[in-house]
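Hello forum,

I keep getting stuck at the same step: I have a sequence, I want structure tokens, and every attempt I make locally crashes halfway through. Rather than fight my setup again tonight, could one of you with a working pipeline run this one for me? It's a single chain of 288 residues.
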Amino acid sequence: MSDFMTGMSRSTVRANGVRMNVWTGGEGPTLILLHGYPQTGQMWHKMAPALMAQFNLVIPDLRGYGDSEKTRTGFDKKTMSKDIACLASELGHDKFFLMGHDRGARVAHRLATDFSERVEKLVVLDIVPTHTIFSRTGRELAAAYWHWFYFQAPDLPEIMIRNSAKPFLQTMFRSLSWRPNAIDDMLFAEYLRAFMLPGTIRCGLEDYRAAATIDFEDDEKDLGTKLSCPVYAIWGQFGKMDSLFDVVDTWKEKADNVIGKSLPCGHFIPEEAPDELLSEVVPFFFGD
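Reply #2:
Ran it on my machine without issues. Output:
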């Protein structure tokens, strides 16, 4: 394993019955950062040093990802968000700021819904809610988010992705990035190592399968519920999201206090535009 998380301590913590790989470090109010697919907690490595100067950072690999435990079940966002709530408790953090990207932002959304008393502010990166994706799917969205639907097929995606893991990851990063050099060869090699660990491919697919089934049903039950914490929705100006949704208006359906902004990048915001993202989220977390 190559560790890019300069200055942070790495440990294994059992939370909600799952062994979770987690990096911690810094001083100040607690900020939990959640990664997306097909990455690990190390996607935050460009931002972590600056954030540690002002926050007590907690950066886990989600259940089934990276060096966290590869479970057979539990990829619905209620369970995955409980993982993070339990992790925070194990580390002694009652309330916290929260920022998630991609799949991690979906976990963060559910966490802010189910544990509203603990999440003080929320940043969601390059997503709209899962229920919105499936309920408004049309031709353009299906083409842009093809992998969401391909991953629903049983068994076949596991076989095909495992047999072409490196070009698969290269294609995912290249097609969703605006700044293609943001993920260098060394970091890509670490993502590939983590991706090829036994069970990781299956777990990532189960995450997407849960979105189309259990998560959609859970979100349907909560359609009348709005998040109580302030929400900052940030998306890539040159990514898919900008052309498909009015991101801020979409999030205003889910929360009363919403602001939003696009940044000059593609999907992988923390790696493509780390400085721009820092300049937005730090004042948001510390503001009134």
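The chain has 14 helices and eight strands. If your local run keeps crashing, start a new thread with the error log.
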